[in-house]
Design a protein that fits this description.
By secondary structure, the chain is α+β, with helices and mostly antiparallel strands. It is 20% helix and 26% strand. The chain starts with 41 loop residues before the first helix and ends in a 6-residue tail after the last strand.
């Protein structure tokens, strides 16, 4: 007791330490036995894997056969899979040549010195064949007349191809690009 008569307690006892419950006590008794892990026999897994590989291989061969047949059909017509034919009627004078120039590498990237030379045919019909990969996307192009160092560009809008298909012949008219 203190001089004022108040009771002074002694040191406080240590609180009990928290002990987590045994996790097994929360699991119902029927489930406390360990279950073996779910396994698939190795032979079953191997068989499934081998079947998937075989299916993939068959699909690959079917796709390759379909592509080979498509190319055979095109070869029978004398056309390569990516070959596009261009035709245009254009009156030129002796010594002038017609060229095809455009927005993609096979057409010279708009550089007249790298343009594709066309072949003159009876009736002033000019033709050429260009290998344009189907995956190339949209193509813009023009025709130019060259004689010596002089270049005369086709007037009007550019001609456009929205998609490329091998074996197709594009018939154009001079100055009639659709932009």
């Amino acid at each position: 007791m203190s001089a004022t008569g108040a009771v002074v307690p002694g040191p406080l006892p240590e609180p009990p330490r928290y002990a987590p419950p045994d996790e097994q006590q929360w699991v119902p008794a029927a489930l406390r036995t360990k279950l073996p892990p779910k396994t698939v026999p190795r032979e079953t897994t191997r068989a499934r894997y081998q079947q998937l590989l075989k299916d993939k291989e068959v699909k690959m061969y079917e796709d390759a056969l379909a592509e080979a047949l498509r190319r055979e059909r095109l070869a029978a017509t004398g056309v390569t899979p990516d070959a596009m034919n261009f035709r245009i009627k254009c009156d030129t004078r002796f010594g002038q040549n017609l060229y095809l120039v455009g927005s993609v590498e096979p057409l010279g990237l708009w550089d007249p010195s790298r343009a594709v030379k066309m072949t003159w045919n009876e009736g002033n019909m000019w033709t050429c064949t260009v290998n344009l990969p189907v995956s190339i996307g949209e193509v813009e192009y023009k025709y130019i007349v060259r004689q010596d160092n002089m270049v005369d560009w086709e007037h009007g809008h550019n001609h456009k191809l929205n998609s490329v298909q091998g074996g197709v012949t594009v018939e154009d008219a001079w100055g009639q690009g659709r932009g």
